[in-house]
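Sample 1 of the test manifest.
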Amino acid sequence: MTRALSQNTLLGADEVSLVICAMAGDDDAYGELVRRRQGSIRQLFRRLCRDPTLADDLAQQTFLQAWRTVKTLKSPAAFGGWLRRLAVNTWLQRLRAEKPLISTTDLEELPDTAAQPTLSEQLDLDSALATLPPDVRLCITLAYAERMSHREICEATGLPLGTVKSHITRGAARLRGLLGAYA
Amino acid sequence: MNGNSRPPSGDDHDDGLDLELLQLFDAAATTLPSAAVRASSGEDFVNALLLRIQHARRLRLLWQVIGVAAVLVPGAFLAPYVARQTLLAAGWFTDGLPATGTALVSPIGLLCAAVVAWRVTRAALR
């Protein structure tokens, strides 16, 4: 009965209260936070890596890291943004473990599909995203899918503001080319 | 979108963003296969994570126990040696003190020294 009441309280609790409880070591509150946030974090990773299994594994790593460090969170209200930054860090660590980030020059070296998109290049959004270099894909996903500002992306990724803006502009241009149907 | 729609959070948010691309991302978010998968496997995901958390908690506890043991066990072995060395050092220190110094430090010595000092001072003032 107590457990059921507790569950009902958790379900009705606002996020800030849950974060405060989680910071005090309440695993049930943290579980409820995960329940509420897992969809967006998993979807972010699915967009970035296009592999559902890997995406879920990275999302688990992110939530595990968040559980370990939630006590260091300064403002409970900032939990969402903090979690997203952890997710970005997890993704960047994954990229660094695989290979160094591709620089903007690599994007310039890609064939200019924006000029004349062929039928085979009329790709769906995810496939088009997959053709972008990892750091450009990350910036585009954070800007367009997560609606993060340039400055937030800059802070989350550690990339200079100019580079973030350049990645977003160039990446969007390339996406427009690949998704020529609506361009 | 993505189940967590929120207004733009930065003043430079709309700078350089393509509105058509934004709409496309919004539309894709609702049709993404993960959206359906998310609803069905969300609870599995949470349960798997909670298991990992329990595992991590056990592992952390184990490391804490190992850490405490790493301090206490050598401490228990070294305690007699440390006590013996402390006694030796204290003995050496007291042996090294001059006898007059030792006498002055004792209560009787202090009393005698105070009487002598009082008499000397009194004689000097006369």
